[in-house]
């Protein structure tokens, strides 16, 4: 049994660091709070640089958290119960948490070096949906995600870290304007496939596309924007009960990526690296076909 130091004094510098990172409004987000055992372990595996990891004096840290911290030489301490009450007040008190430095943002140039499918979320603003899509994208082998008009200013948003269970740092995620995203897909030639209730292809046909795709999903209320649809190679629909209004966008993403498992996961055709300080940002050109490799049945 490892004996860990316990923080019992409010004057400990760690207390101020934790208070700073839990503030709801910060002018500059340089550190992020990672809460609970599973997200902690995943973020450590993803290569985040942790200042320190903490447990609660009255609740032992899980072995997998301690093992991951030992492997990366991350300092670990416990926090006394009175200090925990001061730090989190009305918030849910995590039994394990850590403070990590926010990695620099991913760029389109870095995303262009991946070979798996890319999820493009156009106007999806509900953080819970975005987090679920991040988890599914990582699990089913997507190369990365582009968030357009999401209202997020950083992927280190505490709500997104919670909703994604920490996987938000495990694959490239680019926050972009609609104009920059459209310019990127025009430049790289990655076929953009838009999801629509009146799509000209059925979702099952995605499995026959033997190349990288960008899968475009919009919000449930407004769908995808016309500017994106104008550059889409195809539109795809998912059959549902006519009595149902729509599917949740995270469910749509899961269905689409399941149909693409042969490309994204089975063949292991991607090689993104987790975010780390000093990651190279040099661009490498790509030469990809402009159209998917399945029959063109567009009705537009």
From TrEMBL:
Start and end of every tRNA/rRNA methyltransferase SpoU type domain? Answer: 118-258
Q: Does the keyword Transmembrane helix apply?
A: no
Q: What is the name of the protein in this document? A: RNA methyltransferase, TrmH family
Recorded source organism is Micromonospora yangpuensis
**Pfam families xrefs:** SpoU_methylase, TSNR_N
* Keyword set includes Transferase: yes
Gene Ontology MF terms: RNA binding; rRNA methyltransferase activity
Might you name a Gene Ontology BP term for this protein? response to antibiotic
Q: Which SUPFAM superfamilies match?
A: alpha/beta knot
Q: Which residues form the Thiostrepton-resistance methylase N-terminal domain?
A: 5-112
Q: Which InterPro entries match?
A: Alpha/beta_knot_MTases (IPR029028), Ribosomal_eL30-like_sf (IPR029064), rRNA_Methyltransferase (IPR051259), SpoU_MeTrfase (IPR001537), Thiostrepton-R_Mease_TSNR_N (IPR006795), tRNA_m1G_MTases_N (IPR029026)
Region annotation (Disordered) ranges? 266-300
Enumerate the UniProt keywords alphabetically: Methyltransferase, Transferase
């Amino acid at each position: 049994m490892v004996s860990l130091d316990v923080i019992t004094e409010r004057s400990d510098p760690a207390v101020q660091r934790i208070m700073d990172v839990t503030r709801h409004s910060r002018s500059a987000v340089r550190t992020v709070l990672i809460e609970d055992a599973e997200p902690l372990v995943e973020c450590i595996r993803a290569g985040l640089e942790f200042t320190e990891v903490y447990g609660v004096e009255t609740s032992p840290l899980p072995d997998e958290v301690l093992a991951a911290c030992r492997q990366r030489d991350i300092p670990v301490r416990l926090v006394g119960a009175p200090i925990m009450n001061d730090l989190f007040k009305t918030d849910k008190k995590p039994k394990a948490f850590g403070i990590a430095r926010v990695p620099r943002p991913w760029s389109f140039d870095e995303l262009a070096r991946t070979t798996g499918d890319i999820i493009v979320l156009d106007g999806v603003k509900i953080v819970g949906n975005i987090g679920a899509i991040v988890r599914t994208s990582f699990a089913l082998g997507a190369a990365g995600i582009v968030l357009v008009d999401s209202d997020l200013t950083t992927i280190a948003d505490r709500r997104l870290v919670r909703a994604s269970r920490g996987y938000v740092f495990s694959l490239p995620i680019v926050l972009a304007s609609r104009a920059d995203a459209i310019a990127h897909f025009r430049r790289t030639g990655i076929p953009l496939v838009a999801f629509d209730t009146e799509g000209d292809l059925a979702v099952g046909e995605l499995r026959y596309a033997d190349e990288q795709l960008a899968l475009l999903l919009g919000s449930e209320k407004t769908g995808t924007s016309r500017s994106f649809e104008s550059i889409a190679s195809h539109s795809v629909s998912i059959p549902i009960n006519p009595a149902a209004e729509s599917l949740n966008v995270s469910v749509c993403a899961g269905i689409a990526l399941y149909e693409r498992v042969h490309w994204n996961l089975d063949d292991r055709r991607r090689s993104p690296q987790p975010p780390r300080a000093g990651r190279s940002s040099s661009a490498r050109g790509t030469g990809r076909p402009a159209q998917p490799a399945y029959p063109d049945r567009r009705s537009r």
